[in-house]
Amino acid sequence: MASTLQPVLLSNRCNDSKSPYVRHHANDPTAWQLWSPDTLELARTSNRLLLLSIGYSACHWCHVMQTESFQDAGVAKLLNEKFIPIKVDREERPDIDRQYMDFLQATTGGGGWPLNVFVTPDLEPIFGGTYWPGPKSERLRPGAGFEDILKKVAEAWEEQEQSIRNSGKKIAAQLRDFAAEGSLGGRQAGDVIGEGEEDNLELDLLEESYQHYKTRFDEEYGGFGGAPKFPTPTHLGQLLRLGSFGTEVTEVVGDDEVEDARRMALKTLEAMFKGGIKDQVGHGLSRYSVNREWGLPHFEKMLYDNAQLLPLYVDAWRITQKPIFLEAVNDIATYLSSPPMVSELGGIHASEDADSQISHENHEKREGAFYVYTYQEIMQILGPDELETCTRYWGIKEKGNIDQRYDAEGELRGQNTLCVQFETSELAKELGIAAEQIKEHIASSQQKLIEYRNRTRPRPALDDKIVTAWNGLAISGLAKASTALHSASPEASSTYLNTVINAATCIKTRLYDSSNHTLRRVYREGPGDIHGFADDYAFLIGGLLDLYEATFDSNWLAWADDLQQSQIKQFWDPARHAFFSTPEHQIDILVRTKDGMDNAEPSVNGVSASNLFRLGSMLNDAKYEKLSRQTVAAFEVEIGQHPGLFSGMMSSIVAAKLGCRGLMVVGVGQEAEAAVRKYREGVFPTMTIIRIGNGAQDEWLKGRNDLLADTDGDREMVQLCEGGVCKLLDATSIEALR
């Protein structure tokens, strides 16, 4: 059956969006529409395919495709006459991004952004890809450019509409089946998980998860696999903390394996912080490295990456006390606590772009322009002694140190990324000068280089959205940094805690509706229209639990409890358990999925299971503990098949088997203070802490946890509860806590 396209007159609507990414396309000749009921209805009435283009502000290849294709008159004409082109910010609508990314990965084996998908008027995907070269691109190959693809798809729709619709319906059905496979735990649709079915997952899954990463570990450079190389914070965190679960887990996994897991994580964390993925003269880490050595990043800096890496470096410092990890903690925490990342409202912004102008005079944008240096620039900026030290220390070369294999655009020719090549003691020996002098040269050079770039180069564009979920991750990381540094660095600890409180307050006042206990996803120029997804609730709840442990103000715990009940109401599956990512009656998605595997962000259900166990322990709420067990059990078969993909679930598997340990600190005294300090300076993945008395804001907590109602906050006591048994701890047993 041939298709009959109904004529429509489209105009670019990007300025109707609050998203910086979408607004960036407002001057494209492509008549972009927004994802809305009106647009979807227009696709149906005009009988046109949608060209759904999904990206984000900091995405380099999104900018490339805009320049090459979406600003090209011929491409725009095709899109406007034959399709309904829709631009979506994946950070605003992760649900839309997720379902079409699942389609792309299932059909091509790969994914990424920009994500471009052709979709029927019934929202069923038929064909997709990521970057396609534009008509004048140097990467264009005959018949494989974006313009060619548009012509072929338009022709196919006009000549074979019914066949394409049938194909779309089959694909949509397969996506639903695929989603069900990942959330039924091996059960059939309609099956209900019975009592006692929540405890089938065994501790040996932790050993299998370790083996998964052992076989993929890069012994030379750290990390997993080859290029490109990503930080994978959730997986690194599981390896790092594997030895902190206690003797029962160590006996199952093995002493050598636990030590090796920690070694892999620490080697990777150190390699990243020394590599080009780290801004060596400023603060923060970039998204990922395009080469195996962590030397050449894609230069965008994302809030969610830095927010997740921060608590890893906190625990690495707690475990090893190595100065490099303390430096990393302060570096990332400073990045998240300072402009431009911190908004005037207190919330933390989403990202900084990879691309920026070459200079204030030259408005051409290039990837990494803000961060890289030529040798000639370095010579002009640094003194002779600094030059000798720093060219060796950071691997700076006269013709640049960037392998042209990884510079497809040729934008980085002759440039240097800064990557630490030596320990200062080693370089001191090689150059025959004191190690302290080496450190002085590095510090003074960093200051000169950052002053130079701030003076001569425009900073990359800022995506100033405040995303609830990502602020939750940042609240968690900064709260943990604050608690860890409470004794060692009180001033820094206070700075980070103030940032956390301001961010949490911003979310509560601007993105939370107390009348119906719900969240909004994004704030920019006011709260957005999009309601919070399950990750917004889960990540924020986790952050609030860490904020409570940093302040012992139970008002934060009360809000976490309130949000947890709201998350259950909106997203819980009462029949087969665990949390859907989207609410039940959302009409503009094909598939309602459950997120269990960890990717660039931790899985919703992994974080939720942990939150529920923690809340159950802190509030003495058996319902929460049961829901946590059921959440993990919902992925039983999938975890058993691929335990390495479910790192975020591992601590909850341990908690399900061995229980959460609850530390209760009451009153004032040496033992009380020792217990708090021990908890804050150690790594206890399945332990919680509550405090009564000593000025703690404990009124709500004493009312919510019925065991605490009659607790005398003036009488010093330290108590540890596990397995339904509570025991008093003295100074010796507090010190022995592991």
TrEMBL record:
Residue ranges occupied by any Spermatogenesis-associated protein 20-like TRX domain in the UniProt entry: 12-175
Listed InterPro entries: 6-hairpin_glycosidase_sf (IPR008928), Ssp411 (IPR024705), Ssp411-like_TRX (IPR004879), Thioredoxin-like_sf (IPR036249)
Domain of life: Eukaryota
Pfam families associated with the record: Thioredox_DsbH (PF03190)
GO biological process: carbohydrate metabolic process
Official protein name in the record: Spermatogenesis-associated protein 20-like TRX domain-containing protein
Native species: Cryoendolithus antarcticus
